[in-house]
Amino acid sequence: MINLTKGQSINLKKEAPGGLQRVHLGLGWDVAKPKGLFGRFAAPESIDLDASAALFDAQGNHTDTVWFRQLQSKDGSIKHSGDNLTGAGDGDDEVITVDLSRIPGSVHQIVLAVSSFRGQNFAKVENAFCRVVNADNKQEVARYNLSATGNHTSVIIGKLQLVSGEWTFKALGEMTNGRTIQDIASDIRRVL
């Protein structure tokens, strides 16, 4: 398993015998514990983070979006596990599954983002991460810890992209502000 740093890429073909065909992009987070004298008596609030994926062609034209309002790409190659409204529990809170063998030839980039739907900032989030998992054997291939807390309400986590005909995952960690993937569309364009 590889611990990714911002800007680092991995080639998905080289991460499994015969290359990865299906990947889970798992997102997990915890609610930050309240701080201060009275913090230990306060109940932590729930945080509704939403994982989303935006698809782009070779020219950078947006072709589709998978998010809590559309849980599957139009062609069925990308599926969202559904909306987790709290971040409670261990492991992945939301998962986007990508069947690389079924991605249309016109799609060259898939940008993964997470947004705070209620507008709570990432100062209220801890232990946030994105995992790249082989969907066929459930083996974790790479992990990217989103340790940057702050006043931002969205993070462009990373992107799957075709490089010389092979799919790679690149960790981005770009902080931005918006409650949905639609709100951060112009920020996503900057990372294409």
From TrEMBL:
Domain of life: Bacteria
UniProt-listed Gene3D superfamilies: sav2460 like domains
Residue span(s) of domain TerD: 2-186
Database matches in PANTHER family: CAMP-BINDING PROTEIN 1-RELATED
Protein name per UniProt: Tellurium resistance protein TerZ
